[in-house]
UniProtKB/TrEMBL annotation:
Keywords, sorted A to Z: Membrane, Transmembrane, Transmembrane helix
Native species: Clostridium omnivorum
Taxonomic superkingdom: Bacteria
Segments crossing the lipid bilayer: 12-30, 65-86, 98-118, 124-142, 163-182, 202-222, 229-249, 255-283
Name of the featured protein: DUF998 domain-containing protein
Amino acid sequence: MNKNIDKVLHGVILFIVAFGIVTSATGLFYTNGGAAYNFLNQYGDTVKVYGNGLYAHDSYFMAPIFRGTDFTILFFAIPTLIIALVRDVQKNKLKNRLFLISVLSIFTYYSASIAFGVTYNVLHLIYIALFSTSLFGLIISISSISKEQVAKSIGNKLPSKGIYVFLTLVGASLFVAWLPDIISSLVSGHSLQLIEVYTTQITYVLDMGVLAPSSFICILLLKRQDGMGYILLDILLTLCCFVGILLPIQTVFQVLASISLPIGAVITKVVTFVVLAFFALYYNSKVLKSHTEL
C-alpha cells in the first residue's frame, strides 16, 4: 500500500469523523422548543410535521428515525471508524484496510441518506461534505489494495454455499421490504403511503438500486474468486451488522415518540434484518479468521 495515498486517506477519514460528529450530535441533541403541526402536502394529504430541532420540517414519522440513526452513528459507527483508523495507522495490514473499507461504507450509506433524504436544513453543506468525503474515502481505500492479494489471501477458506444463500436472502429481503409499497402505490394511482413531505424515499433507491444488486453481483464475483467479490462481501456483511443495530434503535425512538407501528411492518422491516444481522456477524467472523496471517 502506498504511504502517500495512506496519508491522504487517513486525512479524509479525520474529516469524516468531524463531519459525522457534527451531523449526528446536532440531529440528536439540538432542540428549539418547537411543536408538531399539520401540513397539507403536494398530494393533498394532511401530514404531521415534527416541528422541533434540526428535523423541524421533516415528518413526525421520519424525524424519530433520523434521530435514531444519529444515535447509532454517534455512539456506534464513529467509535468503530476511529478504531478502524487507529488500527490501519498502527499496522499496515490488508485485514485492517479491509475493515476500514467496510466501516467507510457505513458512512457512505448514512451520508447519502441524509444528503438526499432529509428536508433541507442548516447542516445541508455539512451533509454534502460528509457525503463527498465518505464516497471518495471509500473509493481511495478500495483502490489502495491489490484485488489479487485479497483473493489469494482468502481463497477457498470461506463457507461458500452458506454465504451464497445469505447474500441471496439479503438481496431478496430488500425487495420484499420495499417493493410492495411501490407496487401498491402504482396500482392505486396514489403516492407512496409514507411519502409525506418528501418527493421520494432514498432508502428504496439505495436498498433496491444499490445494495440488493450488489448482493447478487457479489455472488458472481465470489464464484470467480475475484478479489473485488471479497471486498464487496466485507462491505455487505458490515452494513448488514450495522443495520441490525440501527433498526431496533430507530424503532425505540419511534415508540418513544408515540408512533404506532403495524406488526407486519415491524416483522418485514425490522425483525427480518435483525436476524440477517446475526448471520452477517457469524460470516464476518469467518472472514476475519481468514485474514489472521495478513
